[in-house]
């Protein structure tokens, strides 16, 4: 399986990092080794002093597809979830300044938190989902999928032009504003609406 991530998909997040608004989705990949194992803490890597949390809605692909039209995209997933795209922001800044790929800052071991999955049929409108992240019981990120520049089905259409989607692939759909540094002993809890989907400790 592969993890396909969408960057710069919320305007307020683009502004907070002072990035340019993209004309097409920004796409990068994480390997399966980046998945944080269940019930394990997140260990801050020794190569970064500025790791940020980025909470995101996730989509799990349920069948093989290529060049998927947006109007058929809904047939390629049954479940949605919530996760964190951990980012070594200091390392990412160094790489971006040199025009180099981001993988070392985004795809390191443990950099992808994947919470519980929920049937999409549980929700009336996937384009109007509230989701949030609390750090030490303080609300730090609060988003709604209505604010995505590219909605879930549009993302599937776009990425399937370049990558064959396979059963079990996971798409991270982008993070809203409020990203921030994590330090040892932080506790991160993620929610879709009022349902808790993950809880992790930082070490």
From TrEMBL:
<keyword id="KW-0378">Hydrolase</keyword>
<keyword id="KW-0479">Metal-binding</keyword>
<feature type="domain" description="Fumarylacetoacetase-like C-terminal">
    <location>
        <begin position="2"/>
        <end position="184"/>
    </location>
</feature>
<dbReference type="InterPro" id="IPR036663">
    <property type="entry name" value="Fumarylacetoacetase_C_sf"/>
</dbReference>
<dbReference type="Pfam" id="PF01557">
    <property type="entry name" value="FAA_hydrolase"/>
</dbReference>
<protein>
    <submittedName>
        <fullName>Fumarylacetoacetate hydrolase family protein</fullName>
    </submittedName>
</protein>
<dbReference type="GO" id="GO:0016787">
    <property type="term" value="F:hydrolase activity"/>
</dbReference>
<dbReference type="InterPro" id="IPR011234">
    <property type="entry name" value="Fumarylacetoacetase-like_C"/>
</dbReference>
């Amino acid at each position: 399986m592969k993890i396909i991530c969408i960057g710069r998909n919320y305007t307020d997040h683009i502004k907070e990092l002072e990035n340019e608004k993209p004309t097409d989705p920004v796409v990068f990949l994480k390997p399966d080794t980046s998945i944080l194992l269940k019930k394990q803490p997140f260990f801050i890597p020794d190569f970064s002093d500025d790791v940020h949390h980025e909470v995101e809605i996730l989509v799990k692909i349920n069948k093989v597809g290529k060049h998927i039209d947006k109007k058929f995209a809904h047939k390629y997933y049954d479940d949605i979830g919530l996760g964190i795209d951990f980012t070594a922001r200091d390392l990412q800044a160094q790489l971006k300044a040199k025009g180099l790929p981001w993988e070392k800052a985004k795809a390191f071991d443990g950099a992808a938190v994947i919470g519980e999955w929920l049937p999409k049929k549980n929700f009336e409108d996937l384009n109007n989902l509230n989701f949030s992240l609390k750090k030490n019981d303080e609300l730090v990120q609060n988003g709604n999928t209505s604010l995505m520049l590219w909605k879930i089905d549009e993302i599937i259409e776009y990425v399937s032009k370049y990558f064959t989607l396979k059963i079990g692939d996971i798409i991270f759909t982008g993070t809203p504003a409020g990203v921030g540094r994590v330090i040892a002993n932080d506790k991160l809890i993620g929610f879709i609406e009022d349902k808790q989907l993950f809880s992790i400790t930082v070490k």
